[in-house]
Records
---
Amino acid sequence: MAQSRLEKIGTIFTRVQGLLRGSAMKAEDKPIWYDVYAAFPPKLDPRFDRPAPNVPVRNIFYAEDVVRAKLHKHNKPTETISLFDHKRSTQSQQFVQIYENLRAQGALDEQRIYETALDLLAEQRQQAKGTEAVEESLEETEAKSTLLSDFQDAGEQQQITTTSTPASKKTKKDYAGINIDSLFKD
Amino acid sequence: MLRKSFNNLPRLSQLCGLQGRLQSTQVAPVEPAPAEPEDIAAIEQRILKHPDYFQVHNLFTVRDLFNARVHYGHKEGSLDDRMRSYLYGSRLGHLIFDLDKTAAHLRDALNFAAHIAFRDGIILFFNRNALNAHLVEQKAMEAGEFSHTRFWRGGIFTNANVQFDAVTRLPDLCIFLNTQNNVLAQHTAVRDAAKMAIPTIGIVDTNCNPNLITYPVPGNDDTPAAIELYCNLFKEAIWRGKRKRRELLGLPPLEEAKPSKSAGRRFEKN
């Protein structure tokens, strides 16, 4: 059984080719990949001693890197970023966008644009925070009842229920729901 | 060579942790089905003239590669000089692959895998990254092929007949989803496959040596999302080859394993 195990010489194709040509390997023993390899040879010969190409690795930089570097040099990053979240833009991205917008308008010099962009970013964040805060406070007012107020409400409602029975079911439901929420809130 | 016309390969299949497919892989001496006038060997030769017979070019786009984070390499210090031509550049010390080159190489590799599957070859998946080992084993099973994701005992290829006490049919194609044992050493099977004249497809990261890999695919070999993408692509290419073969031979289609829910849903949301 003919075989060449010298993997450092030539490629697997040239080695098998040599065996076939010298009829050391019979045509019916030809490996099944041989014709496929001949039809679709790889882009580079898989030789052990293929020299490394002498190509320099270029650096990837963008025009906005200058201002981004400036931003990060003078400001400590405080936000937490989720790398899985592709929808939200980071503060750095927002800043660059504001900066580019301002520069497109073209009225100010670089330093002024930078400062204005910082102010605008802070404003934007303030607004975003404001809307969040408003939403939170709305939730708070809805469930502002405390344990004490619950007891008082319950007391009042008990008085009412003694006089009118049909309302009792409804009040009980409310009472139970509020009670649990407020307990965990504190 | 010992590759063709031997039927007893039970030990290799045990070793690779997959037993289901033996009937279909034992070299069925290529007999044309009665309904099919053309000889299968003639068909095999004919489809080689088509540049992309299995239509593997439509399996993925460069955007898919980007979303699976294939373009991330290691840091500059660990760069293997032989990988330089596949790089797009270095972003603040982190190497980035040129995905256009990756896509071209990956299409070549998928086409080759599909042709080997069409010719009823045995395909063996390799991976030595513990994080992705289960995923690779799962996908190899779904493709109806073999996998080896554990420690490689020397001589499994080179001394197979002694190790397994029988004449052993070796795989016809090795697919390496990562070509390194650890950060320092290359997988011994890369060398052994070259010794035994078995073609290899390998995902080579920036710290790997692509020279002995027949069809190297430059790309990230660590991230589970990327590995899952490669596995799915190779699985589909292999199935296209197998389906076509059975269709041309007039045989009923093989039952395909359903992709499991547990492995693979994790990275789909982004």
---
Amino acid sequence: MPESKPTLLRFVLQSLGHMFRGPPAYWVWVGFLFALILLGGWHYYLQLRDGLVVTHMTNQVSWGFYIANFTFLVGVAAAAVMLVVPAYIFHRRDIKDVVLMGDTMAIAAVTMAILFVVVDLGRPDRFWHLIPGIGRFNFPQSMLAWDVIVLNGYLLLNVGISFYIVYNHYQNKEPNERRYFPWVLLAIFWAISIHTVTAFLYSANSGRPFWNHALLAPRFIASAFASGPALMAIGLQIIRAISDYPIRQSVINHLALVATIALQVTLFFMLAELFTEFYNEGEHAASARYLYFGLDGHAALTPWIWTAIALLCIAVVILMIHPLRHNPIYMNIAFVLIIVGVWIEKGMGLIVPAFVPTPIGEIYEYTPSLIEVMVSIGIWALGFLLFTLLAKAALPVHCEYLRRQQAREQCNWDGFERRHNAD
Amino acid sequence: MKRPDKDKSPEQVSDLARRRFIKGLATAAGAAGTVAASGGAWGGSTLSDAFADFFQQHYQRMNKDEIDAVLERIERQAKRRYGVDIDCRNTPPREGVVFGYAINISKCRGYRDCVHACVEENNLAPDTQYIRVVEMDHGSLDLRHGDHYYDHDTVPVEGKYYLPMQCMQCDNPPCVKACPVEATWTEPDGIVVVDYNWCIGCRYCMAACPYQARHFNWTTPDLAPDDINPDTHYLSNRPRPRGVVEKCHFCVQRTRNGRQPACQEACPTGARVFGNLLDPDSEIRYVLKHKAVFRLKEELGTEPKFWYYRDA
């Protein structure tokens, strides 16, 4: 708590202090994540030592599990706007109270997305070639150059806005909306852009018909607005359960509604794609045939994609029946189904089939190697840890601010700690 | 006229190399692993050479002195790594020359002599081949139903024809557009090249190429010192580091000195015609003018400088 002058240094120290204070359960969680990060780090070391030969990628399937996870996470990061828009544009007070958590999740997600690209590089030591000015940046030609800009820009925007708000709260000042609102507006468009650019990265490839169609970007956005809010809703409920942070049920219901609509649109888009591919099936549909039905006896992804479709269909039914959607258990089941379903559909289901068959007709199947899976787990753990630490530092400040500003019930992690330490 | 097909499919070779590699890792974390690590990303460098590697500028940004220093370093590294004296040059493109290639598919018999000549000329790793010859059914141009890895006792096989493929050196290359760091570009003589010291290994160009012409060094290329061709060029067949993309470059080291590419010289049937598209008297211009030619995937707008034609 700020006793004397609330300086920046004090703010940083206090935030660090919050990160390193917590009940045993907190330390078990952090330790668990840390162990997974070390495990991932060790496997990344093996990959650095021996080269990308330790993955199961080939010249035929030259992108795999890393890029699949990257694609999913860009969607999660973009979905933060589903809190930002109602909070700042429609002035929903309940959502404005939690919008900070949406930004925090976006920071964690976009960090993971960037890391998934870094571990996919054959020469991470040459990363500086991507830095405009020092390196040589193929902008605006290369969609990957665009992606570097939008992802890093989005990270900076979210860090900047979150920091500004939390720091003002720490100083017990009302953040000046006139100063930060333009940035929020920019961040809203930017969020859509990160996912659009990432979709264009794929749909730009005229040699790969599975990607090369105009529906890819809309489909990306739709499935992102299903999976992102689902993940966010689960995260918010967990925070509500373990802290006194006032998260209204209306926020969760809002996210559930967004996920419902986005999921309906996603499934409709999938249907439109299936029809177009298969009604008059030509060579362009070879990848889709491989994914959905198998091609020339190769069908490694078929069970996965039908599982994803089944999960998404069950989820949409649950969410469309109002009594079920308002039942916390069913609602959360639907959220989990959406997250898993979209992760399959938009990850492996979107990346790998574009390479099978190759543009000149070879068929090579791909499943990730143990090292790829371990490195990916490490990155996910790092993202969870980042979210945990940021939330741990921001929540007490935010709660303190809310308490003082609105005389709300005391709500912070200290309350949680006292309760648990008393046990 | 049938001849033995001494080829092993690149798929088999690649698979073998990989299995051997993984096995080496598993049995003794030493053996294969240490070789790969020490040979590794630096290519057997000293610390100062490794630093110079790290800070090296883009090829097109270096002046003559800087490039000369780089060429010397590359020769030093090859000596240290393979014990071989190579000659790495930077021959510039010739004025008024744009290279093009045409293949007479009624003459190609599927011997794959071009494939092997290319491997030897260009210091390719055992699992990499720039040229693939696809065995196709008469009456179809559908690559998916062609056999990329045919392995018969003799070729040609009745009812089949043979379609050699390599980098098409597109005039509108999707790979160049894709590269986020301009590590690949079109030279004035029309050849799409890669700066192996600038490529970051993101493999976006491989996703962009409609012809599967780009190959990645998943591990440090395992070259036998005795097989190394010492006559090299910075933009073409010098030994490559690991983690970067490479591709057919129309034998820059030969063609810029007025020679034919290795694949053209090796072809025993005379199916390959290579030359200057800007010279109206060249053989390739004759072919384009007098034969019914086609290009692969022309509808994608890539404008390949690589044509196919048939006699009669």
